[in-house]
């Protein structure tokens, strides 16, 4: 038995040595061939911004992003060259734009990027029409956790979804905070208004991706196309500033390609390291970029605000409310 094992061992060792001896090193330019240009861009009524970078190569050890600050980038409108995009000189992370440019809603725009020795890339998108938030209502409910209780503000936003097209959205928000101070130079009270984003959460099944303490809530009209829909979003009381009086909600209308990119990216983030180690199927990030990676999407938005109550005993609230009148 020992003799047999010894023979097997020698056979394996000889095979390994033979394979090693027959190995031939062939020089290649894999450092550039396996990399592609990445485009991350948005177009909206306020303009266009596109960030250019390189994907990670097969031999890259670091996860550091390599931005392209010397790309040739051209914007097209309906397949006709419209403008050469210029790099933002105040940004060293490959950010390009078109100065003094106001895009048209519903018109297709294409961005093409070239950077030697990599393959040129392109992507197209447009700005969708806005959809308004019809109404906002809210109520407060007490939530009990182990050892303590807290208030949760539940907001209901009603929208009237257009039936002519498929529509894709996300909801974001800002709290409008009013404060005041005594200006010694002017010798009078001065009111200051600031805005800050607040994380959202929801148990409404219409939302996709991250729904707990999220920067935005993503959804489509697949289940309510052409109908009115009330959307529930919640905010914990502790998230508010003590002087918050108004909440402003943003309903973003986005293109299908941008929606698919955000949805796939959220799914990738939700796939934790343990599931990867156990052999879970990797999530493929959606891209509408030809010959490259990333996205070029369009967005538009409408807003609606609601005033919060429950601060009547706050001395600052009384003064601020008086100044708002």
Name the features:
Immunoglobulin-like, 325 residues, disordered N terminus, four-stranded antiparallel β-sheet, ten-stranded mixed β-sheet
What would you note in describing this structure?
The protein is an alpha+beta fold. It has two domains: 30-125, Sandwich (Immunoglobulin-like), CATH 2.60.40; 133-285 and 299-324, Immunoglobulin-like, CATH 2.60.40. 17% of the residues lie in helices and 42% in strands. It contains five helices and 17 strands. Strands 1, 2, 3, 6, 7, 12, 13, 14, 16 and 17 form a ten-stranded mixed β-sheet that branches. It has a four-stranded antiparallel β-sheet with strand order 5-4-8-9, with no helix packed on it. β8 (109-114) and β9 (121-125) form a beta hairpin. Mean pLDDT is 83; it is low at 1-31 and 311-325.
What's this, in brief?
With 325 residues, the chain is α+β, with helices and mostly antiparallel strands.
Strand tally is 17
Cα-to-Cα separation, first versus last residue:
97 Å
The proportion of residues in beta strands is 35-45%
Question: Helical residue percent?
Answer: 10-25%
CATH architecture classification name of the largest domain:
Sandwich
The stretches of 5 or more residues where confidence is low (pLDDT under 50) are: 1-31, 311-325
- Mean pLDDT, nearest integer? 83
Question: What is the overall shape?
Answer: globular
Biggest sheet details: 10 strands, mixed
Classify the fold: give the CATH topology of the largest domain: Immunoglobulin-like
